[in-house]
Amino acid sequence: MDIIVIIALLAVPAVFAVIVGSVLLIQAFRRPKLLPEEVALACAWVFMVGSLVWLGAFLSNSILLGFGKPWTWLAAAHFAFAGFGAITVTSLSCRLVAQPFWLKVIRSILFLHPLAYLVTAAGILGYPYCDELGAMCYETIFILQLLAVLLGSSDCVITGPGALLVLSLSVPVVTLIPALAWAFENPLLDLGEMVRYHGMTNAIGHVGLGLLALSMIRPKSHSPVCHGLG
User: Fold this and answer.
1) Taking residues 50-66, what's their average pLDDT?
2) How far is it, in rounded angstroms, from Cα 111 to Cα 108?
3) Where does the pLDDT of residue 70 fall: very low under 50, low under 70, confident under 90, or very high at 90 and above?
4) Structural domain includes residue 222
């Protein structure tokens, strides 16, 4: 595909992502209390821009940071779902957690997300022990996130949309098992199977179902509403 066409196709969603992220960041600072989950909700859109960059490399059959097909496509998907999607789910899940201890736990996860992402990326680039550390970080993130919502939420999370959210938060706890095996060089699945059973399952089961459930629950921010903010 011609590079000009690719730029034209991806420019609009990239600008949209920048605008949405900027608006959310402004809203976060306009709230009476600056909360990490509201800032993270805005910053997650940076990963969407990154996803579009990698998607552009894939569509143009280009090499980016030494990686070509299919790694450029896998990187685009990872930026979109492990980056933007997972951080957005965690940020919105923070709004559900009322118990102080578990609220601190799930807020700490917001800082672990980008760290785990960078460590995993370092592992892909060949830095020793980063694959293992990144996979373990992600498994820890998803276990703690699930526990925080289950044990720290003031609302019922076992019926209706809450149950759907719990299901979505449970998905990566399971799908990280083959990722851990892959990281420790004892793979249970080949690359194609990892895409299907790890990648697609997380994209649909964790991010997709999670955002659907949260859109139905519509959790309110812990910071009081200001000028019509949610």
Assistant:
1) 92
2) 5
3) confident
4) no
Q: What angle do CA 118, 15, 11 make, to 5 degrees?
A: 95
Give me the pLDDT at residue 211, please: 97
With respect to residue 225, please indicate whether it lies within any of the assigned structural domains: no
Query: Would 226 be classed as within a structural domain?
Result: no
Say how many CA atoms lie within 13 Å of 164 toward its Cβ: 15
Place of tokens 């998907």: 77
54 within a domain of the structure (yes/no): yes
- Separation of alpha carbons 150 and 174, rounded Å: 17
Average pLDDT across the chain, whole number = 91
Distance of CA 8 to the CA centre of its chain: 26
Mean pLDDT of 165-172: 96
**Torsion sign, CA atoms 105, 23, 215, 170:** negative
Question: Token digits for 127?
Answer: 């830095």
Residue in the block written with tokens 């990144």: 134
Under 8 Å between Cβ of 226 and 31: yes
Q: Which residues pair with 64 in a beta bridge?
A: 67
In sequence order, which residues have a C-beta less than 8 Å from that of residue 192 and are 6 or more positions away? none
Range of the domain at 188: 3-217
- Residue 97: phi, psi to the nearest 5? -85, 125
Query: Considering the entire predicted model, what is its pTM?
Result: 0.91
Structure confidence at residue 228 (pLDDT) = 47
pLDDT at 69 over 90: no
When divided into structural domains, the chain yields a total of: 1
Pair of tokens at residue 204: 């649909």
Report the C-alpha gap between 6 and 13 in whole angstroms.
Answer: 12
Three-state DSSP state, 1: coil
- How far apart (Å, rounded) are the C-alpha atoms in residues 113 and 50? 15
